[in-house]
Structures are given as C-alpha cells and as structure tokens.
C-alpha cells in the first residue's frame, strides 16, 4: 500500500498532481497521468484534509473516496504517495503565492506540478492555474494545466457522480467513476430483529464522512475482510419505518443463501441496483414477505451477471 503522509514526511523531490481528486474520475486520472509521465521525481498526489469548506464554514463535506480508499485507487495509477496538507484556519490565511513557495516548492520540492483548469487555491481562493504557473516558473518549476474532460452530458465532475448516487443510479455513477462504487464498514451488533424474522442482517458501521447512495433496498455484492470472493446480498439503506420510525438511518446487509458469523468483521459492499425505496408495512409479517421478494429479485439480478464490476 502506498503511504499516506504529511508534507514534512513526504519523499522528495516530487512530481505532483494537486487537487481533491474525489472520485478519481477520468478528468482526475488525466491530471495524474500528466504529472508522472516521464518524470524521475516521486509520483505524488497532494490534497487538502479536511475539506476547506468544513474548516471555513462548518459544512459537512462527504467524500466519494476516503483517504484510505484513495490509496488503493492511486497505486495502480503509478502514484507512490498521497500527501494530505492539513487545512487549518492558519493555512486559509496564507496567500496563494506563499502556499506555492512554502508547501509545494520548499517542503515538497516539486519538480513538476499539474492541476486541472478550474483549480483554485490560497486565501479567498485568489490563486488559479495562471498564478501557479507564474510563481513556479520564477523558481524554474514546470506547471501543466489539464483541460476539463467532457463526455456527451457535460464535464466530468464529482458533483455529477454524487447526483447519480443521490437517486440510486449506480450505472451512471459507475460509468462516471470508471469503476463500481463501493463502501466498507465494520459489522456491529444490532437488535437481532432480522434474525427473528428469518433474515439475519449485518449492521454496518460506516465512516460518517463517506458519501452513501439514496435510501432504499439494493441488490449488492459483498466481500468479507477484503477477500476475493464476492457474495450476493440484499442491502437496506436507511431507517426502519415499520419497526421503529424514529430509529436513525442504518446500513443492513443480508447475505443470500450464506450463513457466516460477521460481527466484528469488515464488509465491503458494492450496491448494484436499487430495487425500491423505503416503505412502511402494516406489520412484521408483511415486512418479512417483502424482504423475501427483495431477496428473490436480488438473487435473480446478480445471478445473470457475468462478473463483478
């Protein structure tokens, strides 16, 4: 696994791609490819953590890829380290010129810097690609600016991926990401109601900073403890309107035709298709019958897939 490190702990000199790269879509991959092509410096991605808007405005910013997940995605692209610049109120006061000189050029010893055409940085987002080029050029450092990648529906963007996930459109999200959307969590003890109904579920504790798809019931693949074997599953995302309408939203996964003790283990989930939205039923018997229909639909859908992803 490639390392996750601070600017002070990074290997250097660097050839770096600078940006949030949330989702690592085709536009992001182009920036990264240009950063490392033909360079002998350490191939590096540099991002801010936490998101600047969390620090400046107290906004919760959910991520398509958490840093640990991003490491796994960056390594096949040829990146050797992910550098997270701690975003603090003090850093926010730093001018764009000072950020380039102190962080990118002095600390990371960048020999090449690549950004997307819409990249902004520095105090009050005063810095842009042109300013970055000017400041770096004065120190003899190459800066490349990558044009925005577009498809038939507009520019590639993390917001388009989130919009697709917001309505449970996994096919569009997969197309934009260039890979299946997945998340992971640790299985924690639940109320045991699913087991009483004959549908035991794994209750997932997912990092609260992870962007999750629309509430509802999904056909899904699941992997236990990072294993290679995908297991067919049906997943419920959301509260329990029939059992306890006041309960918080939860992620519950039922493995189809498998009985495995999962408590305490790590589960990676790939929702494949949203089967229906959340419903409130007249009682537990009607709920159990619907879960049975959901399981049949998920089993049928997943059985015709030729592979995962």
TrEMBL record:
Its EC number is 2.7.1.26, 2.7.7.2. The keyword Transferase applies. Pathway: Cofactor biosynthesis; FMN biosynthesis; FMN from riboflavin (ATP route): step 1/1; Cofactor biosynthesis; FAD biosynthesis; FAD from FMN: step 1/1. GO terms for molecular function: ATP binding; FMN adenylyltransferase activity; riboflavin kinase activity. Residues 176-303 form the Riboflavin kinase domain. It comes from the Bacteria. The keyword Kinase applies. This is Riboflavin biosynthesis protein. It comes from Parasynechococcus marenigrum (strain WH8102). The gene is ribF.
């Amino acid at each position: 696994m490639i390392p996750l490190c601070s600017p002070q702990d990074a290997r250097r000199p660097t050839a770096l791609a600078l940006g949030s790269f949330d989702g690592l879509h085709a536009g992001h991959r182009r920036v990264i490819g240009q950063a490392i092509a033909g360079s002998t410096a350490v191939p590096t991605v540099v991002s801010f953590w936490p998101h600047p808007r969390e620090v400046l405005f107290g906004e919760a910013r959910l991520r398509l890829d958490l840093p640990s997940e991003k490491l796994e995605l960056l390594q096949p692209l040829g990146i050797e380290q992910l550098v997270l610049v701690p975003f603090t109120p003090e850093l926010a006061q730093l001018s764009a010129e000072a950020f380039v000189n102190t962080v990118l050029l002095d600390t990371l010893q960048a020999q090449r810097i690549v950004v997307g055409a819409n990249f902004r940085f520095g105090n009050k987002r005063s810095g842009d690609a042109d300013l970055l080029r000017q400041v770096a050029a004065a120190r003899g450092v190459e800066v490349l600016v990558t044009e925005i990648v577009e498809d038939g529906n507009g520019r590639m963007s993390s917001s388009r991926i989130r919009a697709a996930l917001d309505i449970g459109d996994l096919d569009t999200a997969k197309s934009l990401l260039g890979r299946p959307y997945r998340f992971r969590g640790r299985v924690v003890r639940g109320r045991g109601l699913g087991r009483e109904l004959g549908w035991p579920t794994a209750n997932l504790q997912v990092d609260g900073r992870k962007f999750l798809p629309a509430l509802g019931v999904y056909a899904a693949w699941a992997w236990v403890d990072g294993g290679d074997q995908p297991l067919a599953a049906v997943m419920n995302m959301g509260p329990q309107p029939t059992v306890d309408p006041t309960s918080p939203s939860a992620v519950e996964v039922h493995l189809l035709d498998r009985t495995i003790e999962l408590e305490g283990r790590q589960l990676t989930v790939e929702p494949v298709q949203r089967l229906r939205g959340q419903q409130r039923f007249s009682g537990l018997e009607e709920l159990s019958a619907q879960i049975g229909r959901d399981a049949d639909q998920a089993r049928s859908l997943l059985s015709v897939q030729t592979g995962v992803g």
